[in-house]
């Protein structure tokens, strides 16, 4: 007979005593349970004791979390949180250095527990931590434990960051600015400042003023990878909390300090592999930099007003006067043509001069010859397209002149319109590079070549606009083919960017090698492959192969779960540094998980204290269905987190283990693997992709002997039986 649902069988340990094996009744008050346990060991004053998990984070058991205790859990009898908080509060005030150090070390460990943290804060423990820091008499290990404990206590959000004293903040800042300071103290100090920055505008301005960008750049140039990482984290936090104007000034200063070249040489191409956290920060830095173009991209041009204004929902301050706009357009024309229209005023009449200008603007590829600003009314790409055209004409004048003059000499219907192409190409680049889109909390995809060039967007445009002209000629296009040409160019750019070239020169080489004929070959190969797989006999063979290949994919998914994955804990306040690992046991019966330290790649299964039997798993939730995404419903939902979130519902009480996958690929592997464990179909897009690849390979191997032989849709008819069977050989005569 199975035990009642509210009873769990557990073991309770105590130092120097034989463990107790008990049946814990969840309906029984925890105080009564502790009384029974203490009585069994003849311990008085049961109220001074508490239960906590023996493994993992050693969380205290309370009435609110006791429901998470599972059958087979090992607990430990220890001093109660209030007693421990009182003891450590006294210990950190001790004059004995060893006692003080041990107390702070234990405090840093126990402060991860919310129950203990509440007790310690209620005793005004933070005030004592402030005193240790503000006095400034302790350094090294004592100070590091103090700052670690402070970080853990603040993590529970019992106290606002805005309540920190000026003296405390000044001390933290001084640790960052000191040259001769313990690296662990500087790392923790920068983590504290990183948390302060987004909490309020006042704290942001204080940190920005006291910790200069130059100081952060100094920390970025050290060989200590963790210190380098924390410096980058603080820099990113400052950039994200800044206003548009402040962000623009900061990025300009970073450009002057050649930060991109340093990152490109010493971080991206360093001997050490790039970690996930640093990859995320580089992605954010790239995104913030590219988003500086958003204002120009969303600025539409009104050719009839005196100023160029942003769209109605944007800031209404003028960005470009009509005169400046005309001068930029005229500079494009003058750079391409040594025109008669630029002759002295008395040479031609106004009408003649206007006619010549209109003719030259038409040769430049503007749709509206008399008022070319009309072509820039659409936003996006808005003024960003004009910026790119001017940059191209000024920084690569020979390529610009060649583009324009070459097309001027062609027939009208065969000329590639420079202005129209530039406007559309700018829009394509904005879409590919996600200009104007908010930063993801989890993305790590950045382009290494971005950090090798200061004016990345403009230089990329210069390469791609010449690619447009090259592809136009290869396609022998006419004006009617404009959209087709730009579609091919988009494909050339995206295919080349997917190769992650390390420099713009390499990008230029590869994108030019991917000419129109190569694109046609790739398309033809894909089309032929699709046509081959649509023949009726091939479709039947596909269906017969599917079950075997799906089983192969299932096995791969389970193997991936056995290897495990490192997940990050993400809160609504910030991207957290805390890590946890989850993996499936080799016999596919238990999920093991637990917190791990930074730098641990694949912890042994024995080091993961928490367990969920696969038999207890009830359901898999994804996206908006997950409880940890519903908790954030009050704020703005982050699209990326929603796409990567999934949860396991387990046990009779239907607890949830919540995940946020590091990448979409890991999300697909884990959700597929968990569905396999639940006996359900694999539903991710990766399953279909993998199945298509495996089917394609298997079909090609099976049909190898039928190459260049057309496969009929219907089998050939079976011939009629012969009129007689006299042609058969009679074996009876041979035996005689």
UniProtKB/TrEMBL annotation:
GO terms for biological process: actin filament organization; apoptotic process; cell motility; phagocytosis. Pfam families: ELMO_ARM, ELMO_CED12, PH_12. Residues 324-497 form the ELMO domain. The keyword Cell inner membrane does not apply. InterPro entries: ARM-like, ARM-type_fold, ELMO_ARM, ELMO_dom, ELMO_domain-containing, PH-like_dom_sf, PH_domain. Keywords: Apoptosis, Phagocytosis, SH3-binding. GO terms for molecular function: SH3 domain binding. Involved in cytoskeletal rearrangements required for phagocytosis of apoptotic cells and cell motility. Acts in association with DOCK1 and CRK. Was initially proposed to be required in complex with DOCK1 to activate Rac Rho small GTPases. May enhance the guanine nucleotide exchange factor (GEF) activity of DOCK1. PANTHER family: ENGULFMENT AND CELL MOTILITY, ENGULFMENT AND CELL MOTILITY PROTEIN 3. This is Engulfment and cell motility 3. The gene is ELMO3.
């Amino acid at each position: 007979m199975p035990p009642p649902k509210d009873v769990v069988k557990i073991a309770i340990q105590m130092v120097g005593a034989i463990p107790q094996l008990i049946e814990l009744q969840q309906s029984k008050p925890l105080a009564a349970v502790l009384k029974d346990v203490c009585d069994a060991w003849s311990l008085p004053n049961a109220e001074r004791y508490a239960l906590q998990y023996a493994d993992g984070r050693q969380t205290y058991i309370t009435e609110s979390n006791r429901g998470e205790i599972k059958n087979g859990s090992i607990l430990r009898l220890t001093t109660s949180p209030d007693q421990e908080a009182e003891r450590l509060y006294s210990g950190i005030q001790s004059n004995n250095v060893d006692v003080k150090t041990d107390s702070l070390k234990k405090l840093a460990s126990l402060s991860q527990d919310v129950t203990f943290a509440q007790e310690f804060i209620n005793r005004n423990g933070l005030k004592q931590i402030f005193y240790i820091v503000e006095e400034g008499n302790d350094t090294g290990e004592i100070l590091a434990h103090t700052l670690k404990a402070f970080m853990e206590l603040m993590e529970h959000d019992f106290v606002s960051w805005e309540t920190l004293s000026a003296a405390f903040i000044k001390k933290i800042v001084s640790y960052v600015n000191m040259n001769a300071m313990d690296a662990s103290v500087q790392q923790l100090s920068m983590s504290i400042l990183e948390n302060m920055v987004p909490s309020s505008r006042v704290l942001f301005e204080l940190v920005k003023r006291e910790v200069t960008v130059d100081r952060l750049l100094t920390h970025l140039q050290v060989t200590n990878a963790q210190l380098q990482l924390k410096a980058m984290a603080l820099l990113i936090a400052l950039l994200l909390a800044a206003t548009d104007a402040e962000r623009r000034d900061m990025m300009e200063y970073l450009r002057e300090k050649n930060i991109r070249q340093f990152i490109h040489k010493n971080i991206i191409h360093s001997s050490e592999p790039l970690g996930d956290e640093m990859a995320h920060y580089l992605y954010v830095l790239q995104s913030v930099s590219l988003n500086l173009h958003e204002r120009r991209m969303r600025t539409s041009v009104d050719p009839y007003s005196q100023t160029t204004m942003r769209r109605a929902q944007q800031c209404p301050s003028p960005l470009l006067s009509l005169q400046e706009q005309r001068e930029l357009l005229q500079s494009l024309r003058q750079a391409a043509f040594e025109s008669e229209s630029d002759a002295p005023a008395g040479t031609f009449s106004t009408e003649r001069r206007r006619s010549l200008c209109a003719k030259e603007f038409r040769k430049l590829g503007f749709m509206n010859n008399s008022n070319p600003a009309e072509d820039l009314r659409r936003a996006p790409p808005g003024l960003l397209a004009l910026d790119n055209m001017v940059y191209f004409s000024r920084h690569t004048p020979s390529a610009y002149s060649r583009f324009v003059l070459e097309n001027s000499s062609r027939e009208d219907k065969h000329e590639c319109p420079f202005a129209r192409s530039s406007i559309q190409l700018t829009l394509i680049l904005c879409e590919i590079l996600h200009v104007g889109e908010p930063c993801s909390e989890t993305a790590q995809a950045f382009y290494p070549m971005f950090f090798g060039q200061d004016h990345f967007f403009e230089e990329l445009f210069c390469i791609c606009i010449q690619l447009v002209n090259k592809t136009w000629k290869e396609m022998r296009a006419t004006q009617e083919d404009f959209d087709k040409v730009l579609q091919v160019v988009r494909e050339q750019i995206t295919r080349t960017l997917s190769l992650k070239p390390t420099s713009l020169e390499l990008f230029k080489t590869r994108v030019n090698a991917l000419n129109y004929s190569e694109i046609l070959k790739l398309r033809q190969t894909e089309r032929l492959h699709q046509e081959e797989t649509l023949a009726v006999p091939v479709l039947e063979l596909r269906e017969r192969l599917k079950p075997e290949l799906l089983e192969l994919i299932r096995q791969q998914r389970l193997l991936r779960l056995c290897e495990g994955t490192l997940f990050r804990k993400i809160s609504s306040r910030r991207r957290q540094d805390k890590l946890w690992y989850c993996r499936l046991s080799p016999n596919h019966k238990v999920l093991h998980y637990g917190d791990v330290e930074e730098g641990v790649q694949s912890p042994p299964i024995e080091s993961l204290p928490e367990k969920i039997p696969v038999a207890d798993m009830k359901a898999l939730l994804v996206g908006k269905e997950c409880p940890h995404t519903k908790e954030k419903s009050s704020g703005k939902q982050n699209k990326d987190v929603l796409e990567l979130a999934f949860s396991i519902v387990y046990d009779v009480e239907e607890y949830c283990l919540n995940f946020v996958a590091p990448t979409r690929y890991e999300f697909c592997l884990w959700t597929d693997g968990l569905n396999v464990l639940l006996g359900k179909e694999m539903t991710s897009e990766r399953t279909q992709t993998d199945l298509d690849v495996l089917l394609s390979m298997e079909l090609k191997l099976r049909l190898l002997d039928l190459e260049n032989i057309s496969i009929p849709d219907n089998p050939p008819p079976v011939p009629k039986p012969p009129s007689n069977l006299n042609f058969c050989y009679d074996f009876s005569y041979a035996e005689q």
